[in-house]
Amino acid sequence: MTQLSGIQKLLKSFSYAIEGMMHTLNTQRNMRIHFGVAFLAMILALFLDLSKTEIILLFFSIVLVVAAELFNTAIEAVVDLVTRDYHPLAKTAKDVAAAAVLLTAGHAVIVGFFVFADKIVPLHLRHWDATGGMAVYVAFIPLGLLVLLLISWRAYLRFKRNHT
Ligand SMILES: Nc1ncnc2c1ncn2[C@@H]1O[C@H](COP(=O)(O)OP(=O)(O)OP(=O)(O)O)[C@@H](O)[C@H]1O
Description:
Elements: H1 6-27, H2 29-47, H3 52-82, H4 88-120, H5 140-162
Helix pairs in contact: 1-2, 2-3, 3-4
InterPro entries: DAGK, DAGK_sf
Binding site for ATP: 16, 76, 94-95
Keywords: ATP-binding, Cell membrane, Kinase, Lipid biosynthesis, Lipid metabolism, Magnesium, Membrane, Metal-binding, Nucleotide-binding, Phospholipid biosynthesis, Phospholipid metabolism, Transferase, Transmembrane, Transmembrane helix
């Protein structure tokens, strides 16, 4: 067998990675949704006057969601390889991986709102707060805190139920 050169090895590893991406796109409906939304966001970004930071944030959010979906698919494949039978650990692995995707998708929606809202909302509607800016952004902080507290509380209740 001929020895592959360094560059050939590199190209081969790229082709495996692209294969992984294609597999995920072909098999995961959620990945197709992420791609669709990312495509629309990029088209929208083309027509709006976004700053460099906003564009970076947008790309970062998209990459985060896509990467999480790729890891989720990899974990699902490994779990299915190990067992097709019901197993609580299989459930934990898949549920936790799915939670990571949900988190990144929620983050992307919030970033999308932050980036696009005040570019899309007509100017006269933006003056409903004293500063003329979108003070609604600040509302995300208590909302985020509330979500964290609710999830922690539910997890605590479940932990208590399982340990009494
Ligand atoms: N082997 C298993 N044992 C226990 N629970 C499982 C097992 N496989 C799946 N589950 C449960 O079913 C849920 C859905 O699993 P599934 O493999 O269909 O994932 P999915 O997110 O629907 O994947 P896909 O995107 O491929 O449809 C998991 O999140 C988990 O709660």
